[in-house]
Structure formats: structure tokens, C-alpha cells
User: Fold this.
Amino acid sequence: MSRQQTSSQDPIRCIFDRLFKRFGPQHWWPGQTRFEVMVGAILTQNTNWANVEKAINNLKAHGLLEPRALYKLDKDRLAMLIRPAGYYNIKAGRLRALLEWLFTRYKGDLDALANVPTESLRQQLLSISGIGPETADSILLYALDRPKFVVDAYTARIMARHGLIEPPFDYDQLQDLFHRHLPADLGLYNEYHALLVRLGKQYCRPSPRCQGCPLEDIPHVIEPQGSVDQ
Ligand code: SF4
Assistant:
């Protein structure tokens, strides 16, 4: 399948069209700045967005949602402020590691990332402790406008149930499915991932609610799925 093929006959594109028609735009990512999106990508690991928002609001209320201010902050105090997001000591360590990378390599200047090729940037992010492919690609796509499709457990479940990928598979194989079937379009990648999360939460749950689902009439099987790591 050509990378440029976007016909509605293409199953990956067809799923997008149906989801967008049903759910409409999801308005992701709910962050006001690139840095806020990067911080949110770490805070959202293993928790829901409502908890992340509380942690983000704490940082905002203290004027800390800015690279240099957060870099100067003591790790224990950071952990206390992001406590609502859960795993706060671990996440404080991960945020510190992200900031250490940003300041050591780029003097804390997000604009300096603009000239770094996407794959190099991805490898650098993946080398930071606690940043796996889902978090790295969320940062690349939603904070840095790089066309990397973000996949997650919802994506894995939906694609496997519709026979579009054969278990066992890993993160890269699942991501490659989207990269092969879709043009490298930031807006499309942004919206599609958000729509799959919506579908996974509302219908394609561990016990699927196929009745009324926008993909109900697309052949599917409820079988064991592959999994992907954050
Ligand atoms: S709920 Fe059923 S129809 Fe909907 S995506 Fe999941 S398996 Fe497909």
C-alpha cells in the first residue's frame, strides 16, 4: 500500500472517516504551550487526564510551567506539586531527566529543537529515562509538530480486533501500519490518535460494546490482543 494512498476504500482511512463523522474533532492536545504538552505527556502516563490537569494547574499556579523555572525547582517540591497525577516521585524523576536533556543539549531552548531531524530527536527522547515510544511520539507530534503517529493500548486493541494487524506485534509494527496507509499529515495523525482513544474509552473497552459502535459493521473478532509499551 502506498504511503500516499488515502482513499476511503483503504481500511485505515475508512476507520478514520467513520470516527470523525461520528465523534467530530477532539481538539487535542489540551496544552497551551509546547512545554506544557511535553510535561503533560509524562504526567499522563498511567493516569487519566483529569488528574494531569490538577498537577498542571498546580505548576501553573506557582508560575513553574516554563522550562527554566521548572529546571531550577527542587525534585522533592516538584514531586509534591505533581502529586495529583500519581506516581509522583517517578514522574518527578522523569521530568527532571527531560529537563536535564533539554538544558544540557539545547540550553533549555525549545526553538533549538526545530533544526533537529525527527528520527534523531526521537532517538534522543527515547534515551531519556522513563520516556518510551508512546511518550516520545506524543511529544514529537503534539508538542513539536513532527509527523509521528502515536499508538497506544487502545490502538492495539482496535486494530487487532478488526484483523488489521496480527498479534504478536510491537509498538513499531503498529505505528508502521498507520505510516504505510496514511500521508504524513500532522492534522490527520493528531486527530486520528485522539479519535481512537475516544473509541477505546467509549466502545472498544476490554469488554467491547460493539452495538452502536461506529465500526460495528466492519468485520471484527474479539481475540487476545498484542500490547504496546508506553
Ligand atoms: S467495540 Fe466492537 S465494533 Fe467497536 S471497535 Fe471494538 S471490536 Fe470494533
Notes: The chain has eleven helices and no strands. Residues 88-106 form the longest helix (19 residues). Confidence is low (pLDDT under 50) at residues 1-7.
